UniProtKB/TrEMBL annotation:
It holds the Pfam family ABM. Residues 2-95 form the ABM domain. It comes from Altererythrobacter ishigakiensis. The keyword Oxidoreductase applies. It comes from the Bacteria. Transmembrane segments: none annotated. The keyword Cytoplasm does not apply. Keywords: Monooxygenase, Oxidoreductase. PROSITE patterns: ABM. This is Quinol monooxygenase YgiN. Gene3D superfamilies: 3.30.70.100.
Length: 102
């Protein structure tokens, strides 16, 4: 299993002032969750900084993650994000197992 965790920080006011960015995020999440091999796909707002997006993804394997990177919805998402590029990014990829309930 592949897991991606991290944050993307947008310029101050990006989320509040750009409804297109919010819609692009919602569309990206919905389309990604529908992909074969997507186990979890979540973008969440940091409660202390609304322009910081917390990302949590789980994929069955590297093959499906690579396909995700080449998907039409990823290309569209990248176009929208290019209009309001992130000012910071800290994403990590992990190769792991399914884990155990806590």
């Amino acid at each position: 299993m592949i897991q991606i965790n991290g944050t993307i920080t947008l310029a101050p006011g990006t989320i509040a002032d750009n409804p297109d960015t919010v819609e692009a995020i919602k569309t990206m999440v919905a389309a990604s969750r529908a992909e074969d091999g997507c186990l979890t796909y979540t973008f969440a707002q940091d409660l202390s900084d609304p322009d910081t997006i917390i990302i949590y993804e789980r994929w069955r394997d590297q093959e499906v993650l690579a396909a995700h990177g080449k998907s039409a919805h990823m290309a569209e998402f990248q176009k929208v994000m290019a209009a309001n590029p992130p000012v910071g990014r800290d994403l990590r990829i992990y190769h792991t197992d399914e884990g155990n309930p806590l």
